[in-house]
């Protein structure tokens, strides 16, 4: 046990320790309060480090600060992280492909999931448009936690209807079929979505804008045969489905759990045939900011509270005032992924669809905004890791 090694001086001391993943520390985290509690909030002592730097991953939440702990300190020295970016390298699609072809574990995975090679080839050869989705706010398993009973199916339906709208109204978007990979085991959700698409009674979901969502589904022709189809990487016929997709079709693809190199390579891939990624958290924010192309956050309420930081970078870098007003409304209290979005603004999916269409134009206002964010992340003074280490050097014994 680590704490035993620590109190018996069998943990090697170090000058500096750094993390970007720690959330909180308190006595409740200790298995043995008598021996652990005195060190629970003294992270430098706990790690036997002269200086410990905690870089929290949240981009813009005032109640979360980066912290520096010194050995023997009773509390941290706070460093304001606001406006700074925590970035880290991610695997490319080429690296993911090499992993499947040359790494023993990757080769075993490819043998188990042969459709992956078909998917990657289709992405690289631009046989279809890609719109990756990742985030707990799209999952049914979170429906009944922390007042989140409306997450599914309404958030994913905003994405599906927006994608269909963009497909029907955007020349570049509609020229190819669209694949929406969801990076979870999404088979249960897909089965239910297929039923809801063809039903006029959504039972327990009726209270959260079901009638408005149904109207969008009908008006967009998503009930038409072949317009919306689903598959899983584990399906025997998934490769055939991918190879036979036609323009005007949408495929929702359950990716299941997978090695991070594959997730990074597919989810963060940037090309002309990639539409804006959908995300929830700070880790995916860090990976996508470096691409310089539009992506959107599907956040929600938490414990009944509306989070004003639904879009972490804020809108300071938005030069186009019309775009700024659209984004403020889009991420507003009744905006994208809000509990009552379908009821208060049942056409919010059209706004998202328009953003998707505009993202295909590198000179559009929204494309320029994300390029500006990328340039902002590349400034040394905005590097949160650099800033944390710089502050640590000032106090290092």
Task: Tell me about this structure.
The chain is α/β, with parallel strands linked by helices and 397 residues long. 40% of the residues lie in helices and 12% in strands. It has 18 helices and twelve strands. A four-stranded mixed β-sheet has the order 1-2-3-4. The model has no long low-confidence stretch (mean pLDDT 90).
Task: Give structural attributes.
397 residues; alpha/beta; 2 domains; 4-stranded mixed beta sheet; 4-stranded parallel beta sheet
Largest beta sheet, briefly?
4 strands, mixed
Number of helices: 18
Rg calc = 23 Å
For the termini, the CA-CA separation is 29 Å
Order of helices and strands: HEHHEEEHHHEHHEHHEHEHEHEEEHHHHH
Helix content: 40-55%
User: Which segments are poorly predicted (pLDDT under 50) over 5 or more consecutive residues?
Assistant: none
Shape: globular
Number of strands: 12
Strand order, biggest sheet? 1-2-3-4
Show the helix and strand layout.
Elements: H1 2-7, E1 14-19, H2 33-36, H3 43-46, E2 49-54, E3 66-70, E4 77-79, H4 93-102, H5 104-112, H6 115-124, E5 129-130, H7 151-169, H8 171-174, E6 178-182, H9 187-197, H10 210-219, E7 228-232, H11 238-243, E8 250-254, H12 260-267, E9 277-279, H13 282-289, E10 295-297, E11 301-302, E12 305-306, H14 321-330, H15 341-344, H16 348-359, H17 365-377, H18 384-395
Parallel strand pairs: 1-2, 5-6, 6-8, 7-8, 9-10
Antiparallel strand pairs: 2-3, 3-4, 11-12
Helix pairs in contact: 4-5, 4-12, 7-10, 7-16
In short:
The chain is α/β, with parallel strands linked by helices.
């Amino acid at each position: 046990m680590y704490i035993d090694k620590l109190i018996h001086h069998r943990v090697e001391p170090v000058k500096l320790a750094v993390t970007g993943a720690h959330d909180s520390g308190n006595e409740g985290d200790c298995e043995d309060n008598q021996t652990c509690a005195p060190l629970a909030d003294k992270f430098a002592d706990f790690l036997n480090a002269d200086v410990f730097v905690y870089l929290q991953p949240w981009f813009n939440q005032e109640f979360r600060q980066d912290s520096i702990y010194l050995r023997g300190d009773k509390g941290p020295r706070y460093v304001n992280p606001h406006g700074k970016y925590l970035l880290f390298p991610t695997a490319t699609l080429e690296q993911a492909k090499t992993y499947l072809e040359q790494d023993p574990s990757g080769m075993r995975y490819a043998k188990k999931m042969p459709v992956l090679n078909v998917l990657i080839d289709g992405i690289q050869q631009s046989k279809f448009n890609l719109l990756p989705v990742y985030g707990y706010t799209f999952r049914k398993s979170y429906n009944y936690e922390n007042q989140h009973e409306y997450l599914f199916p309404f958030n994913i339906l905003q994405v599906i209807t927006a994608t269909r709208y963009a497909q029907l109204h955007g020349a570049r978007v509609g020229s190819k079929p669209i694949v929406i990979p969801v990076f979870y085991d999404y088979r249960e959700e897909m089965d239910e979505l297929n039923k809801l698409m063809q039903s006029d009674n959504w039972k327990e979901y009726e209270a959260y804008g079901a009638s408005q969502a149904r109207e969008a589904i009908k008006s967009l022709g998503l009930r038409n045969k072949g317009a919306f189809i689903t598959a899983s990487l584990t399906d025997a016929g998934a490769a055939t489905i991918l190879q036979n997709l036609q323009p005007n079709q949408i495929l929702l693809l359950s990716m299941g759990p997978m090695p991070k190199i594959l997730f990074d390579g597919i989810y963060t891939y940037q090309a002309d045939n990639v539409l804006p990624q959908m995300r929830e958290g700070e880790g995916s924010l860090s990976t996508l900011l470096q691409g310089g192309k539009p992506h959107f956050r599907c956040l929600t309420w938490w414990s009944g509270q509306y989070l004003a930081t639904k879009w972490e970078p804020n809108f300071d870098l938005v030069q186009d005032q019309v775009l700024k007003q659209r984004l403020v409304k889009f991420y507003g209290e009744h905006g994208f992924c809000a509990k009552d979005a379908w009821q208060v603004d049942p056409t919010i999916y059209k706004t998202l669809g328009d953003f998707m269409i505009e993202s295909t134009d590198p000179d559009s206002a929204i494309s320029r905004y994300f390029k500006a964010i990328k340039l902002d992340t590349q400034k040394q003074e905005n590097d949160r890791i650099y800033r944390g280490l710089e502050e640590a050097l000032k106090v290092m014994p």
